[in-house]
Amino acid sequence: RGAWKTVCEVGFNAGHSAAFWLHKTDAHLMEFDIAMLPYSRGSRSFIEAVYPQRTTFFIGDSKHTMARYMHGVQNGTQPPCDLWFVDGAHHGSRVVLDFRHALATTSPAGWFLADDCNRRFLPVLKSFLQLVHLGRIFNWSKRWVNNGPPAGLVGWCVGQVNTSVPGLWYYDPNTTVSLPGAARAKRG
Question: Which Gene3D superfamilies match (predicted)?
């Protein structure tokens, strides 16, 4: 955990995970958020006060802010992300965009985490598993927790980026991926 220089996150919300990434590390946090929730501004002020000079906020639609950041990484004006925590869009093509931009800005052998990676949010789960299937990510997710309806399987998908597979990833809805079983507590 201490080796991460740059942590990137989409979906600040109330800043809980932001505090986790910054606590007892020297990491700098690149935060992408739409900032529409009533408590987001106060939470941002708190994080900036507790961890001064260690956060950069990109406010707006991640479709645009993450794309600009991707171009910054590609032209050397922004640092690549040693760890990505994706907790942005949960439905449709927006999930794919967040994943694509995150992958394109991850440092070699960087870490890729997705929140709400479960059957309740199938686009998140399927996108992650497709990246595993294609060899773009080494899957480190070993446990799935079944909380029953309405949540179902909950938790994070955790992977490490495989930089030996070049190019951008494009989601193919026709690719078959194995979904974790609803009744299983472990996946191995």
Answer: Vaccinia Virus protein VP39
